[in-house]
Amino acid sequence: RRRTRATATTAAPAPTGDVAGAPGATEGAPKRKRRRRRGPAKATATTQPDTPKGDA
Predict the structure, then answer these.
(1) Are 25 and 17 in contact (CB under 8 A)?
(2) What pTM does this model have?
(3) Alpha-carbon distance 8 to 54, whole Å?
(4) Is pLDDT at 40 greater than 50 in this prediction?
C-alpha cells in the first residue's frame, strides 16, 4: 500500500506544480508540495518577472 500511495502522490504533484497548480497540490499533499515548490517555484518566479520587465 505504501508503494502505491507514494507513486500516486509523486505523479500527481509533479505535473500540478509544473502547470502551476500550487493551490491544488497544497490541499492534497502540503509536505510534498512544499518540497517541490522550492525547486520549480524559484524557476517560475524568475521567469515571470523577467517576461513582464522585458516586454515593458
Answers:
(1) yes
(2) 0.10
(3) 39
(4) yes
